[in-house]
Amino acid sequence: MRVAIAGAGAVGRSIAGELLENGHEVLLIDKAPTAISVERVPLAEWLLADACEITSLDEAALQRCNVVIAATGDDKVNLVVSLLAKTEYGVPRVVARVNNPKNEWLFNESWGVDVAVSTPRLMSALVEEAVSVGDLVRLLRFSHGDANLVELTLPPESALAGTQVGDVQWPEDTSLVTIIRGTRVLAPTADDSLEAGDELLFVAAQAREEQLEDLLSVRREDAVG
Question: For residue 79, what are the contacts with CB-CB under 8 A and spacing of at least 6?
């Protein structure tokens, strides 16, 4: 997979390093000469250019990229890069960094963003996830289809503890994608059982989140009653 990253600061370089370790091709783009540190990510391609300029993106051959990541520290730049990547070059997947939470509402399909990553929101979500059992926590927002990646730790008293995945009538527009059980990551099948303490990750429509939380948190005695 070929990935272009706009913004070669600490965030962009860190993402590039992870992707390279996983065997992907990575192009880092930045207009600041001081940001071009080839020795820090030697396996990446580097381009000194303004990612908001069509000529720069032509030089980067953005049409060949499977993913573009707008990772600069400027939300305006990230929005412009996202829009150009999607509308001018037809990049299948565009991920954008949100620096100011007040701007998060802009990072949607209208601006070409498939996934918006807000660091403050993600950090607070991870804190909530670490201390909350039985409460639904929103981790990421996907622009297409108004869907979110959400997590809930199944409480011991849940009526679904011990139930097989295939026997649960999940809400519409909801998909259980992963079960994290201790150190194990499980791709759920219909025959897998849900256990108390499981971290359940769903992709769910925002309108279904409350219904999903109610389903997972209902107590055994309430279900019986």
Answer: 70, 96, 106, 107, 111, 113
